[in-house]
Structure formats: structure tokens, C-alpha cells
Amino acid sequence: MQINYCNLMEYCGNQIGANGASDLGSGLANCTNLSNLTLDLSGNQIGANGASGLGSGLANSTNLSNLTLDLYQNQIGDEGASGLGSGLANSTNLSNLTLNLRNNQIGANGASGLGSALANSTNLSNLTLNLRQKLLT
After folding, report:
1. What's the mean per-residue pLDDT of the chain?
2. 3-class DSSP state of 1
3. Do 94 and 65 form a contact (C-beta atoms < 8 A)?
4. Cα separation of 87 and 76, whole Å?
5. Phi, psi angles (nearest 5°) of residue 51
6. pTM
7. Are 53 and 22 in contact (CB under 8 A)?
8. Domain boundaries along the sequence of the chain
């Protein structure tokens, strides 16, 4: 598929779940010339499996250099954050990454796994990362 730029795919609040996110990742993996992607999947209950599947699909987008990924409030957890990071680390041309992982129950292990994976992204020059969790008072 010959797509170079996808400005915004907005699927927020549609409850696509883990299978939908994984299938979307598989579809994006076929867009081998994709270089810019903005994707909003906030509030879709994709969980750890969906985040990992999405990351695996994006790993095959070898020309991807600019990615904005909004996964706000998806119950991703530690396992999903690490899986997403592992996939993104294989996007060898990724230079600009914005990740909104706010309110996803990501603890120290998930943040460490994500950070360790992204440390392997040798071309990554700009990273914006939101891991904020909802605080109850």
C-alpha cells in the first residue's frame, strides 16, 4: 500500500478492544511507505494484548519516522507498556514520538520496560511521554 502520511485516525471511545487494536496494527504493518502517523485510540479498552499487538504491527512500518499515539485510558498495564515499547523499538527510522499513556495502570515495571525498549531506538531524537495516573484524594 502506498501511503506516506496519515494525519489522523481517530477511533476514540469506540471500544475496539484488544482484537481491534491488534488488527489495526496488522493493517498498518502493510503500509510499508508510511512515514507520519497520528492515531487516537483513547478509551477503547485495548488492554495489554491490544497495545502489544499494535506495537508489533507498527514495528513493521520501517519507514515510520513521526508517530503520535494517544492510548489514554485503555487498561494497558505494565505488560502492555513493555510490549508496545518492544514493538516501537523495532521501528528503526522513528525519530519523533509522542505517546499519551495516561491512566493506563502502568507502574514502575511497565515504565522501566517501556524505557528500556525505547532506549534501543537509536534514531529517536524527540520523545514526549505522558504516563500520568489518576490520583484519588
Report:
1. 88
2. coil
3. yes
4. 14
5. -65, -40
6. 0.87
7. yes
8. 5-130
d(CA 134, CA 21): 23
pLDDT in tens, 66-81: 999 999 999 999 999 9
Distance CA 105, CA 46 (A): 13
Task: Dump strand ranges (E) for 71-125.
Answer: 96-100
For 8, the grid coordinates are 489522523
Distance (Å) of CA 64 to CA 35, 77, 106, 109: 4, 25, 25, 27
What is the reported pLDDT for 62?
84
In tens, the pLDDT along 110-133 reads 999 999 999 988 899 999 999 998
Residue pLDDT, tens place only, 10-58:
555 667 899 999 999 999 988 888 899 999 999 999 999 999 999 999 9
Query: Contact, 83 vs 48, CB < 8 A?
Result: yes
- In Å, what is the CA distance from 41 to each residue of 8, 21, 26, 52? 11, 8, 15, 14
Domain 5-130, second-level architecture: Alpha-Beta Horseshoe (3.80)
